[in-house]
Design brief:
The chain is an alpha+beta fold. The two termini are 54 Å apart.
């Protein structure tokens, strides 16, 4: 407020009167703005909690968005001679594996020279391994080092590495192929006799060979150390040649993985519903009576209770895997039987053992439960989702409150200035009247007849 001393002339307490008028003008607006700010802050908190709960639920859905997420297997290998992977669909079983031979690629060495700076001559080298081949043109000025670089940098090089090696016996070019297998022996040829010493005169220091393993006593040969589908849906990689030593491979379906996923889904769904119940509480909820809460509850209920007609298996709803809704709208895997029906726990155990692939389809197919729920969440929580747009609007509205307070302050200053002008006139008028009264009193007291002496 302005700093003045209204009422000095009149003796009236005009400062208190002005303050009372300004306060009376300010309080309703300040209360309105404070209530508005409190409302927006509460709604922002509620929307933030709602979005966070949806994001948490989505993180669980992301772990069950692919049918392979349900098809996990336990793999036990008794030694490090092999490593094993499955695609989740392999049949259970115990297998005896023996690594009799590892796959190798060819290594070759050229004739020896005096140093890496030696030149050879000009011509064309042709490198071949199986069906792969490439050429390198050599100039008469190229040293062994330059030849090495040309080979390694050839654009169509199929995986051959050249090196210059210097030993007590001299310097030579070494060729190492990456292509393993007995049918992929490396050859280096040329039609130019000037470069025979780095081509046809090169000697093999390691022959290419196939990998050989035995599975339950049956021989399996492969050009690489990776044996795919020798056991269907299984990839075995030979790591150590160990003739006569048996590695035991045990494959079993990981039913606990599917159970853990479903229990996590139930828990995450119920946590989301609990958050929504708290936010939508009619007396204490930050989003009490908000239609988005009611609408999402209805949509969630439909998704987790409806059947999916497009599925090919015997499972087309959550109830088929033992998951049902209780009276509070929460999911449960019931341990209590109704009549002759199996409990939810018994139903779940049965489908985990016998219908695991169909559980994956129920959740992770294109129109499965995971897909439907993720689409619903994105409608609310995506970049242009309902809650995201609402949060942005609330944030903008909250930031504008400062401008409203500033406008109110300016209006109150103008109002106070107007009051001071009006009461200033009153102060001057009363002061004038007081001066006249004092003059009259003094004059009348000095009139003849009023002298008390």
């Amino acid at each position: 407020m302005n700093l003045t001393a209204a009422g000095i002339g009149s003796g009236l307490d005009l400062e208190s009167i002005i303050e009372a008028f300004v306060t009376a003008e300010a309080v309703p607006s300040e209360v309105r703005l404070q209530n508005k700010e409190d409302r927006i802050t509460t709604e922002l908190s509620g929307v933030g909690s709602f979005k966070s709960a949806l994001s948490t639920f989505q993180s669980v859905l992301d772990k069950m968005s692919d049918t392979d997420d349900f098809n996990k297997q336990t793999i036990d290998v008794s030694s490090s001679d092999i490593s094993v992977e499955t695609n989740g669909y392999a049949s259970n079983g115990v297998f005896s594996i023996e690594v009799q031979q590892l796959a190798l690629a060819t290594r070759m060495e050229s004739a020896t020279f005096t140093s890496a700076d030696d030149t050879v001559g000009d011509g064309t080298l042709t490198f071949t391994a199986g069906s792969d081949t490439f050429d390198v043109t050599i100039a008469s000025t190229d040293t062994l080092s330059a030849i090495r670089d040309k080979i390694n940098e050839a654009s169509d090089n199929f995986g051959l590495t050249a090196n210059v090696i210097t030993t007590d016996a001299g310097t030579f070019l070494s060729y190492s192929s990456e292509i393993t297998g007995g049918d992929n022996e490396l050859t280096v040829t040329t039609a130019d006799t000037a470069i025979d010493n780095i081509a046809t005169n090169a000697t093999i220091s390691q022959n290419a060979q196939d990998a050989i393993i035995e599975i339950n006593g049956n021989t399996v040969t492969n050009s690489t150390n990776e044996f795919k589908n020798s056991i269907e849906d299984v990839t075995i990689t030979a790591a150590v040649e160990n003739v006569g030593v048996i590695t035991t491979l045990t494959i079993a379906q990981d039913e606990d993985n599917g159970k853990d996923l479903l229990e996590s889904f139930v828990s995450a769904y119920n946590a989301l519903r609990s958050t929504m119940d708290v936010l939508g509480n009619a007396e204490t909820g930050d989003l009490a009576f908000d239609p988005n809460i009611r609408q999402m509850k209805s949509q969630l209920t439909s998704i987790v209770t409806d059947s999916i007609d497009s599925l090919s298996g015997n499972l087309d709803s959550l109830s088929d895997v033992g998951i049902t809704l209780d009276s509070n709208g929460k999911l449960e895997i019931s341990a209590v039987a109704i009549g002759t029906l199996s409990t939810g726990s018994e139903t779940l155990a049965d489908v985990l053992e016998n219908n695991l692939n169909e559980i994956g389809e129920l959740f992770a197919s294109d129109d499965g439960i995971t897909s439907q729920l993720s689409t619903l969440i994105d409608d609310y929580n995506g970049s242009d989702g309902t809650l995201t747009v609402w949060k942005t609007a609330l944030s903008l509205e909250k930031s504008s409150i400062a401008d409203e307070y500033e406008a109110l302050e300016e209006r109150l200053r103008d109002y106070e200035d107007t009051l001071r002008k009006k009461f200033g006139f009153l102060d001057a008028t009363v002061s004038s009247f007081n001066a006249t009264s004092e003059w009259l009193t003094s004059t009348l007291s000095n009139l003849p007849g009023n002298n008390k002496d």
